[in-house]
Amino acid sequence: LLKSINELPTGDIARELKDFKDAEQVSAYANDAMAMLVKNGIISGTNGNLLPVDKASRAQFVQILYNIMTR
């Protein structure tokens, strides 16, 4: 959605998807989006993991929204 309206968050945290222990668990369809979110600091993970197969808590989701809106 953000890509289609040309409102992608910007930033350069110098982290890559491959830096996370469980990066290979990210589904192929979500790989590009997750890589962009990690690179721009929107998603920082937990203890070196992204936890892509877990459910996000309400607090985690709100933090992601906040990070998107403030970048």
Give the key terms:
about 70 residues; mainly alpha; globular
Could you explain how this protein is built, in words?
The protein has 71 residues and is an all-alpha fold. It is 30% helix and 0% strand. It is built from 2 helices and no strands. 8% of the residues are buried.
Q: What level of helicity do the residues show?
A: 25-40%
Order of helices and strands: HH
Q: Alpha-carbon distance between the termini? A: 16 Å
Give the percentage of residues in beta strands: under 5%
Low-confidence stretches: none
What would the principal axes of the Cα set say about the shape? globular
State Rg: 12 Å
Average pLDDT number? 87
Strand-pairing-aware structural class: mainly alpha
Number of helices: 2
Number of strands: 0
| Largest beta-sheet details | none
Provide a brief overview of the structure.
This protein is an all-alpha fold. It has helices at 31-39, 58-69.
Topology:
Blueprint: H1 31-39, H2 58-69
